[in-house]
Write the structure tokens for this entry.
Amino acid sequence: MMHIVELEKIYKNYEKLQVLKNINMKIKRSTSTALVGPTGSGKTVLLRLINLLEKPSSGTVYFEGINANASSNASLKIRRQMGMVFQKPLAFKGNVYDNVAFGLKIRGDKKDIKARVKETLETIGLKGYENRNALKLSGGETQRLALARAMITNPKLLLLDEPTANLDPISTKKMEDLILEINSERETTLIMTTHDLSQGQKLANRMIILNDGHILQSGKPDEIFRKPKNKFVADFVGIENIMNGEAEEIGDGLVSIKTDSINIITVTEKRGSVNLSIRPDEITISKEKVKTSARNVIQGIVEEIVDTGSLIRLIINAGELFTVFITRESLTELEISIGTPVWMNFKVSAVHVF
Amino acid sequence: MANEIIGAVEQAIYLIVTLNPELIEITIRSLYISLSATLIASLISIPIGGVIYYYEFHGKRTLINLIQTLYSVPTVIVGLFLFLLISQRGPLANLNLLFTPEGMIIGQVLLILPILIGFTVTALIGVSNQIKELAIALGANAYQTIITIIKEARYAIMGAVILAFGRAISEVGVAILIGGNIRGFTRVFTTTISLETSKGNIELSIALGFILLAIALIINLMLNYLQGRE
């Protein structure tokens, strides 16, 4: 099957600065891909190259097997089969209707514009917004407007550059739901960038980890989480406190995950054999068993104390090995040394099941 | 002397209130010539400004600097330049433009082209580059992108058009050298004021001055309004 997008030996330099180095990737139709990496890793530039807003310094971008940068006419034709949502919520002066209809009008696609705008606005939850001043929308609304504007032309490929980076948590949730819906219902191929790994995991069925202009690893999210190819990926995906076990409902909407040695309480839809991880910063430490709202209270013995420079990393053995960070002050205050028994407390929401 | 001025002002107000035919005729002609010049210059300048803005080319910065230098070219220099072209010994003599309203329009067009082009470019540059990219990413071609950016900058461009009109209607160099202040044919606000005053026809000059001031006021109000919209 022909890939919708294929990048071959892509290099991109700005003067002396190399921002992309030997990028090779193939994107299958109807898939959803997340380009994940820290700020400055080159993911936005990569997205812009795919959108043909920029040309590679060397290498070839193929769209449906055709060299996309062969001529400016060809580029325009190909770009018109894509949709792009930029990181910064942005609207043209004028009302919402004109903004959403933009792509149709410039394509000379004048059929049923009104009905299509109405339908698209309904899909993204801005029903009846046609005559609103686009510049007076909130950030979340503007970003959804941007999504509507990009998807109204029914693009084969939708590109999203950090689609929720500037949004509050509620708008982020709405945007993420919409992205999932577009990918599953319309079968639009999606490529998005994000610095947020969990978002990539939520929205994409394939992740490409970028750093310093290189692709470090690509594959299914859980594959990357379980088998990071190198230390950067492992550090970046923040793999700490990974365990697996059997998930079982215990009432009150709670689920207990039994590992070989302990039980961890969480909330998840998943049952049976699952992986879980707990972010070290979500775990608090106490010397005595304290009453907290945290459902998980687990005792262990400090096995290792590592000074990372800014924080102290503790390795605690509770049957499973836990990594926990504490401040230097807490270390002295709690009089922790190797062999000290401590209690770890963390909430159900701190447990990430995958 | 003071009495003379007060008397002249009274006379001027009388001319305005009674809609003196000569006054009305000069006003209409002035507006006709300068509005035509502004319209024509806008139709030329806005697309040129769009092209200069959109394309990256060698010497772009120098070209913009040159255009900006021409903002303050003395009106008599433009008048002289055009005079040499269209006078009886000039290369364009057979167009018979000298001492005609059409000749004056061309002169004023030349005079305000740099301001209009320059301000258009500035207005377009003022639109965020992200808007330009947005238009391109949504599939706009070069022409559609320029139109989109012009629409984004519409208030700033309208401001430039109004300023250009202000420069056209208040200039005297082109109007005298090319128009020649022919009564009933090429006589406009500024030529009347500058030439009739010396002939002692103060009342008409003052009346025209009032109208010119009123136009300046209207221009200012419109500019303020547009800046409020920005």
